Amino acid sequence: MDKAVGQAVILNVDDHAPARYARTRILRQAGFAVHDAGTGADALRLLDEVHPDLVLLDVHLPDISGIEVCRRIKNQEESANVIVLQISASAISAPQATTALNTGADTYLIEPIDPDVLVATVRAFLRLRAAERGLAEANRQLLAKNRELEDVNKALRRSNEDLEHFAYVASHDLQEPLRNITTFVELLQARASTRFDESERQMFRIVVESALRMSMLIRDVLAYAGVGRETRQLTPTNLADPLGQALQNLSQGIADSAAIVETQDLPAVLGDSMQLTRVFQNLIGNSIKYRTPDVPLRIRISAEAHEPGVWLIRVSDNGIGIGKQYHRKIFQPFKRLHGYEIVGSGIGLALCLRIIEAHEGHIWVESNEGSGSTFLFTLRAAEVGAATAGGKTPPPGARGV
Q1: Alpha carbon of 37 to those of 2, 73, 89, 288: distances in Å?
Q2: Which end of the chain has fewer CB atoms within 10 angstroms, the N or the C?
Q3: Rounded to whole angstroms, how far apart are CA atoms 221 and 345?
Q4: Residue 389 dihedral angles phi and psi, to the nearest 5°
Q5: Whole-model pTM?
Q6: Tens digit of pLDDT for each residue in 92-139?
């Protein structure tokens, strides 16, 4: 027999016909679809035919004990979730109730039962089972979505790894022929310079400069592609060390620009010293490249507590500044605000963003055109409890600048 749409199906099992009839009548009046049986064998047969949501099961049956019927219901995979309300007018002792509950019954009712209490009890258990089924279905869907997401993440990781590997190999393999072009053009220029007029010599210079610029671009792309692969396990690192290395690498540019670099005591953070050297080198190098003409360049590097366990690092200068409309764009690869009159590949700030994100930090800029720039980034403290003072919260979207 088919279930009525939206109607719970109940199997009422009792060998006492008047009691069974009365209970069936009460439940049908309450809106349930009710089937009844007078023996354990009939109950098990109807179980497979009508697939009830709930079974009202008398303990004393003429052929099979109600407790045994309950055990069989709960031990079958197809019916294990059927609610069983064990009921009895004579087996009313605590041990008997305990035995029934331990066998799998969901509750144990003692007759006589008030009709309203019976209906309310049935409805309560049906609501509970519906909630359990809803939760199980939600968990099933969540598990399926998590598996889909895991598959997507695996595919994305493979794609990113393949892309990084391709960029690394392509950049590395492009360097050799480019070096040959630069070397032989310079040799040709040196040996035959007297045979060419000034416009032709200018063409040679453009070729050499373009080749050198291409070499720098390839080198920066190589560094950008390698950040995810090269960043090692983050270890306690005194920021003074990568800053010192960056200043040493930029010593010629600092001297040529007569820049004054001021540094405060810097904290220890969890980081990769080589990668953090690249961050400082790019930020300070930008200050040198984009300095205000005829104004002494001043660069200041400082640190302050940002939030518990996090340091905020500032690299400030008095250069030409950056318009607010460009604050996000400058962190995208190949985004340049100036022409090739200022040397650069457009990768530097994108590389900084990628490195800081690999360190689980944020980076952003505060600047106005004509009034200098301050680049800020956060790093985790090397020691638990360090950097406990309050600080400035990064602006919305700082991670994705």
Answers
A1: 17, 15, 17, 92
A2: N
A3: 9
A4: -75, 155
A5: 0.50
A6: 778 888 888 888 888 888 888 889 999 999 999 999 888 888 888 889
Listed residue (11, 8, 16, 10) closest to 112, CA to CA: 16
Q: Which amino acid is at 101?
A: L
Tens digits of per-residue pLDDT, 161-184?
776 676 666 666 766 777 777 787
| pLDDT at residue 388 is higher than 60 | no
Which of 2-6, 54-58, 328-332, 379-383 is the least confident region?
2-6
Round to whole Å and give the CA distance between 79 and 83: 9
CA distance 284 to 373: 11
Cβ–Cβ contacts within 10 Å for residue 277, how many? 20
Supply 321's token pair: 């500044």
Token pair of 222 as six digits: 């190589």
Residue 168 tokens read as 């690394």
Classify the phi-psi angles of 51: left when phi > 0, otherwise alpha if psi is within -120 to 50, otherwise beta: left
Tokens representing 243?
Answer: 């800053």
Pairing of the two strands 83-88 and 107-110: parallel
Contact yes or no for 28/34 (Cβ under 8 A): yes
| Class of the CATH domain delimited by 232-400 | alpha beta
CA distances from 299 to 148, 269, 289 (A): 49, 22, 12
The CATH code that applies to domain 9-113 is 3.40.50.2300
pLDDT confidence of residue 222: 65
Q: At what angle do helices 94-103 and 66-75 cross, to 10 degrees?
A: 20
Do 261 and 247 meet the contact criterion of CB atoms below 8 Å apart? yes
- Per-residue pLDDT of 18-33, as tens digits, reads 999 999 999 999 999 9
H or E stretch covering 44: helix 40-50
Is residue 306 over pLDDT 70? yes
DSSP code string of 91-135: --SHHHHHHHHHHT-SEEEESS--HHHHHHHHHHHHHHHHHHHHH
Rounded CA-CA distance 114/97 in Å is: 19
